[in-house]
Specification:
The protein is mostly helical. 70% of the residues lie in helices and 0% in strands. The relative contact order is 0.09.
Length: 183
C-alpha cells in the first residue's frame, strides 16, 4: 500500500524542485512506481496531476525505475481522463516513442499492440476540450508511431489539415515540424 506520507505530500502544492526530489526518492525505491501510476487516477484531480508530474520526472530522470512499469503505464494510458495528468502522460509516451528512445523501450513498443494507444491519441488530438500542449505531444506520438502503423501518416496529415486553422499559432508551428518529420 502507498505510504501515507506520499499521499500527504501530494495533497500540497508542489514546486518543480520538490517534484524532482520525489522522483529521486522513487528512484531509491522508497515507493512503488506502479502505485504512483495508480494515483494518477486519484479522484482528487490535483493529487492525480501531481502524481503524473512526479511520474514524468521519474521517466526523465530515473528511467531505470520506470522501465519495469512501462507496460503497465501503456495499459493504463487510454484510461487517463484527467487533462492535467494527460499532459504528463502524453509527454511520457512522446518520449517513449522517439527515435532515440532506449533499446528497452524500442523493444517494448515493437512487441506491444499500440493500436489502442494510437486510437486514444487520435481521439485526444481531435477533442476540442484537450489543451494544445497535449495535442502537441499527440502529434509527436503519432508521427513517431507512423513507421509501425503505415495508415497513420495519411490520417495524421488529414487531421492536421483539419485542425490547423482551429488551433493556436503554436499548434501551427508544431504541425509544420511534424510535416517535415513525416516526409
Amino acid at each position: 500500500m502507498l505510504s501515507y506520507s506520499l499521499l500527504d505530500t501530494l495533497k500540497t502544492t508542489l514546486q518543480k524542485s520538490k517534484v524532482e526530489k520525489l522522483a529521486s526518492i522513487a528512484a531509491e525505491q522508497t515507493f512503488s512506481v506502479r502505485e504512483l501510476i495508480d494515483i494518477t487516477f486519484h479522484q482528487d484531480e490535483q493529487i492525480a496531476f501531481r502524481a503524473a508530474w512526479i511520474l514524468e520526472n521519474i521517466f526523465s530522470l530515473h528511467q531505470d525505475r520506470f522501465l519495469p512499469y512501462a507496460s503497465y503505464f501503456l495499459v493504463k494510458f487510454p484510461a487517463q481522463n484527467n487533462l492535467s495528468a494527460r499532459r504528463h502522460y502524453s509527454k511520457i509516451l512522446a518520449l517513449m516513442t522517439k527515435k532515440n528512445a532506449s533499446a528497452a523501450l524500442k523493444e517494448l513498443l515493437a512487441n506491444y499492440d499500440t493500436e489502442s494507444l494510437v486510437n486514444t491519441v487520435f481521439s485526444w488530438l481531435i477533442d476540442e476540450k484537450v489543451p494544445v500542449a497535449i495535442k502537441s505531444h499527440c502529434l509527436n506520438i503519432l508521427a513517431n508511431l507512423h513507421t509501425k502503423h503505415s495508415w497513420i501518416k495519411e490520417e495524421l496529415i488529414q487531421t492536421m489539415d483539419f485542425l490547423v486553422d482551429k488551433e493556436s499559432i503554436g499548434f501551427y508551428a508544431k504541425v509544420k515540424q511534424i510535416r517535415k518529420q513525416l516526409k
